[in-house]
Design a protein that fits this description.
The complex is a heterotetramer, with 2 copies of chain A (77 residues) and 2 copies of chain B (147 residues). With 77 residues, chain A is an alpha+beta fold. Chain A contains 1 helix and 5 strands. The longest helix of chain A is centred in the middle third of the chain and has 11 residues. Classes of the chains: A alpha+beta (77), B alpha+beta (147).
């Protein structure tokens, strides 16, 4: 399964935008574990995920070619 | 969510006083309006650990921000009897002293315009995926955090 | 009351978008400011008993109004941590769609500017001896009453 | 005693600005009675007085050359 990963703000300095190919990761909770393993610094940071331009409020299923955004706390205005 | 067109709120670079003046002037033909409320955010030259902020570089997850803003806009329009609502946020590097956020509401009587403007500012800061990178004079930076 | 100079708030004729733009631009060098709040009152083309208001003719007891405004200004400055406060009110005939009141406050963080601006608008309307004469298209008139 | 009378708004249509010469009127309450007798329509109107640019909150003594303003409810903004 191909998942597009994009990141913003402080977290964009931790990882590049990338498309990853992963198996055995079926939902956003599992993807989060995968990412925190790959980027241990992420565990220390506050962030939210968005799945295909919708903020993830609870664990959601992933399908091929989904886009996940990793977003630190907002600081606009 | 309604079928209304999603409006862009993002502006490359600072929001200029001239832009604001034109926006105000556009309302001269709307003779049902009695009160306008405006909020403007300006980049502060804060001192942090002895270094001065010379600019803030704004980025956003634009697609998500515009969807969210559309939702907020609809909610505010159904909550308050407004004639107009205009929102603009800068992207890119905005120098200290320049304006990066412009929120402009209008209504027949003053109260709805004032209340809607305040609520919009709070929601924009809390809910839109926008990030400010504070650039110091020595080119180092830190990521802004909204209090 | 302090010994500060009493400022004039009165402007002959409407307050133009250009005037407002200049006022905003003047704050670009004040890099301690993070938030600006503006209220503008605009003359409405109300329909009253089938007749449309085409303009409001404003008069004031200027000396008393300026004394009172000075008092209000001092009170608001001591109540809120403001960087700036600017108030302008039109005198004379202001056509529907034109701006007759401009209140502009600025502070480091947004809240004081917003709260001070709202309080100023309420106090200006309630406490300043200013009168609006609503002129109808047929040149008849009635005296405006603030609700 | 000479008292200057000025009026504003709706009330300015009822009376001209004028300097009156009156005797037996020593304070603002008495002046108010005098004015309401001279201009009966005033009795039906809401208004405040100002004495020498200060709003009259309670009965105040008058002296020669004082200025009294008669002000209907404010409607600025």
């Amino acid at each position: 399964m191909h998942i597009e990963i994009i990141s913003f703000g402080k977290i964009s300095e931790l990882m590049d935008n990338q498309t990853i190919e992963i198996e055995g990761v079926g939902n956003t909770d599992e993807l989060q574990q995968y990412l925190e393993k790959k980027y241990p610094a992420l565990k220390e940071m506050k962030y939210k995920l968005a799945l295909n331009k919708n903020i993830v409020q609870q664990n959601a299923q992933l399908k091929n070619h989904d886009c996940i955004a990793i977003m630190p706390p907002f600081s606009g205005g | 969510m309604s079928e209304k067109k999603i409006k862009n709120i993002f502006v490359a670079g600072p929001i200029t006083p001239d832009f604001i003046a034109k926006s105000i002037a556009n309302h001269g033909s709307k003779t049902g309006i009695g009160g306008h409320s405006i909020f403007m955010g300006q980049v502060r030259m804060d001192e942090i650990d002895g270094k001065l902020v010379s600019a803030i570089d704004y980025t956003a997850y634009e697609a998500l921000a515009l969807n969210k803003m559309h939702e907020i806009r609809e909610e505010i329009f159904s909550k308050y009897p407004l004639s107009c609502m205009h929102i603009h946020h800068s992207l890119g590097e905005i120098t200290a002293g320049e304006i990066c956020l412009f929120v402009f509401t209008s209504s027949k009587h003053r109260k709805p315009a004032i209340d809607a403007c305040n609520e919009l500012v709070e929601r924009i800061k809390a809910e839109l995926p926008i990030w400010g990178k504070e650039i110091f004079a020595d080119s180092s930076h830190q990521w802004k955090e909204n209090i």
